[in-house]
Amino acid sequence: MSLRMILRILGLLLMLFSLTLLPPILISLLYADGVWSSFVIAMVITVATGALLYWPNRNARKELRTRDGFLIAALFWTVLGLFGALPLMLDGAQALSPTDAVFESFSGLTTTGATVITGIDFLPEGIRYYRQQLQWLGGMGIVVLAVAILPTLGIGGMQLYRTEIPGPLKDSKLTPRITETAKALWYIYATLTLTCFAAYWLAGMNWFDALGHSFSTVAIGGFSTYDTSIGHFDSALIEMICILFMIVSAMSYSLHFAAWREKRLSQYLADPEARFLLLFLLALTVITVVSLWLTGTYTDLLGLRHGLFEAVSIATTAGFGVADFSVWPGALPFLLFVAAFVGGCSGSTGGGIKVIRIILILKQGMREVLRLIHPNAVIAVKIGKVSVPDSIAQAVWGFFSVYVLLFFLMLIGVMATGLDQITAWSAVAATINNLGPGLGEVASHYGDMPDAAKWILVVAMLLGRLEIFTVLVLFTPAFWRR
């Protein structure tokens, strides 16, 4: 492991991130909201820190190994979350405390969508835009963007790509060259964002709201430029557009690439993971809508409209809202919340455990039942027509086991700060699944939580974004041995 090489890359990535502060500066100047200087100061600090890390190590040249990729990804997301908090701490009279600023920054970059801010409608436009941009950058991952750039600087990219792309099947590349793969992902991501922006704008949003919500929708983030989220617009058309793009963004970007290359929409229905996601969303929507009607919560088509939106928004881990689902009757709030554990497809911008892992867990469970009947049978686990290697099956069970263990450890930690069981459980689940809204005291915002609980949830967001093992591997003695 080359420390100088890692510091060089970290410096380059920080300088790259500093450039993303230019759009908020322009937005602030355009609206004359007075916060442009906060972004300028944050930009200077970020680029100066990046230069201090890069310049002494500029001549370091060494091929990255897998271990280096893990360390760079974990370090970069941690450092990025901290530096991303600077504009929020420097915002004059409306400045957040360091804890709240870091929480908001990590929530944006990990596309969690949990917020400590109230009165979003009245924030300066520069800050309102910045929150949305954080989610867009975090959605596909700025590290993946760097994969397309770093090879031109003599730095290999496959190790970074493998640690950044979510899901158990990380070694499959869309194109023979990793740089072209990263570019393909970003072309698809940018195209979806522009299409979503145009749809929102044509549906009645102004350009500022359309841009901000296209960022958070395609990233499956959930941040909004209003406290009441998508419900602010009270438009069935806008809600349908949001539902469509949440579903599309929750599908694998590899699948989008295949469908575009083959020019066939049938690719989506042929993919087992996409089919499972669509059927799961359909079943959840039917249960939600019927329950709302039977309990008299809604007696008209508003039940269908709100039930459909909330089911898709929560299950895909977007976290947008048009109604307060936490006060719906019976088991509905809990059911919707548990659905977020499934999350999006592998290789999507969604959070959660991932659809492919849920499929594998179900299939492995069925295989064990069949083995009770036929002890000597050799039963393969298949996804579609492809047999899944036992190594991947074992990795899925390992991930799930560690996920559950960490979940309960963080739950105990959050409860130890004085929060009740429902609030603590939903807060940990919402952050580790990168969902956002919770139940109990965190149904609308996280601002009233103790600082200690917020730091635990920041760790949960990071673990969820980097899928646990990328972070945990750094704490094993074997990782640091030569």
SSE topology:
Layout: H1 3-19, H2 22-31, H3 36-54, H4 66-84, H5 86-89, H6 98-109, H7 125-140, H8 142-149, H9 158-164, H10 178-202, H11 207-218, H12 236-249, H13 253-262, H14 266-270, H15 272-294, H16 301-315, H17 332-339, H18 355-373, E1 382-383, E2 386-387, H19 390-415, H20 421-432, H21 451-465, H22 469-472, H23 477-480
Antiparallel strand pairs: 1-2
Helix pairs in contact: 1-3, 1-4, 2-3, 2-7, 4-6, 4-9, 6-7, 6-21, 7-8, 7-11, 8-10, 10-11, 10-12, 10-13, 12-16, 15-16, 16-17, 19-20, 19-21, 20-21
Entry keywords:
two-stranded antiparallel ribbon, mainly alpha, 1% strand, 482 residues, 63% helix
**Beta-strand residue fraction:** under 5%
- State the secondary-structure class: mainly alpha
Widest β-sheet, arrangement of strands = 1-2
From the spread of the alpha carbons, the general shape counts as globular
From N to C, what is the helix and strand string?
A: HHHHHHHHHHHHHHHHHHEEHHHHH
Name the average pLDDT: 87
Our Rg estimate from Cα atoms comes to 22 Å
Helix % is: 55-70%
N→C terminal distance: 8 Å
Largest beta sheet, briefly?
Answer: 2 strands, antiparallel
Number of helices: 23
Uncertain runs: 152-158
Tell me the number of strands: 2
